[in-house]
Amino acid sequence: QVQLVESGGGLVQAGGSLRLSCAASGSIFRINAMGWYRQAPGKQRELVAVITSGGNTNYGDSVKGRFTISRDNAKNTVYLQMNSLKPEDTAVYYCNADRVATAQATRGYWGRGTQVTVSS
Length: 120
Known about the structure:
Strand content: over 45%
Number of strands: 12
Order of helices and strands: EEEEEEEEEEEE
Structural class: mainly beta
Distance between the termini: 40 Å
Oligomer: single chain
Radius of gyration: 14 Å
C-alpha cells in the first residue's frame, strides 16, 4: 500500500519561507510525476508545481519565481521550497504522485494535505 506523507507546513509571516516535503512509502517500482497542489477556502484545487522523474518542472503562474520544486528519486520524495510568501499563498497544500507503479497496479495517489498560513 502506497502512502504519501507531507510535512513542513505551518504559520509564517509575509515575505518568509517554508519548505514542504512529501515522502512516498510502500513497495514502489517507479513514480512518474510528483507535485504539489493547493486549495484555499472557497476555491478550487490548483496546481502549484510538478516535476517529472526526469526533472522537468511546471509551475502555476502565481508562484513562478518564488517557489522551487525538487525531487529525490531514490527516496521517492518531493520538496517544495517556498520563498517570498504572500497571504494569498495561504491554503492546504496537497502532495500528488502520478502513475505510481507497484506490483498490484499503477495509479495516482494524494497526500492528506498540510496547512500553510501566511500572515500579513
